[in-house]
Amino acid sequence: MKKILVVCGAGASSTFLAHRMRKLAAERRLELTIKAASQQGLDERLPEFDALLVGPHLAADFDELELLASRFGVEAALLPDSVFSDGGDSAALELALGLLIPQQPKELS
After folding, report:
1. Class of 2-100 per CATH?
2. CB atoms near residue 79 (< 10 Å)
3. Residues whose CB is less than 8 angstroms from the CB of residue 55 and which lie 6 or more positions away in sequence, other chains included
4. pLDDT tens digits for range 35-47
5. Which has the closest alpha carbon to 77: 94, 102, 103, 53?
6. Which long-range contacts (CB under 8 A, 24 or more apart) does 75-78 make?
7. What integer pLDDT is reported at residue 46 of this predicted model?
8. What pTM did the predictor assign?
9. CB 69 within 8 A of CB 52
């Protein structure tokens, strides 16, 4: 089972988003674990996860967070500003799935 971590500054907005993403993943019958966390202590939690989604309000810290995630072999993506509006849970889940499922190169014709 793949594990996704949604991170924000204090952990509140990521908790709501992770909850909505879990519900959507269950509806789609996807076997995923989706958890939320604050930015604090992230280096201790990252080894447990396969993907990291970073809240848009942490855009200024994204490069540093992406580097930290890469040290543990974790793929990272910055969530769009629209993630907390209607349909944001679906966009976040699709972004995470894109990190978890390697894209197949297109064959040249």
Report:
1. alpha beta
2. 26
3. 6, 7, 8, 9, 13, 14, 17, 79, 83
4. 999 888 898 999 9
5. 53
6. 75/50, 75/51, 75/99, 75/100, 76/51, 76/52, 77/51, 77/52, 77/53, 78/54
7. 94
8. 0.89
9. yes
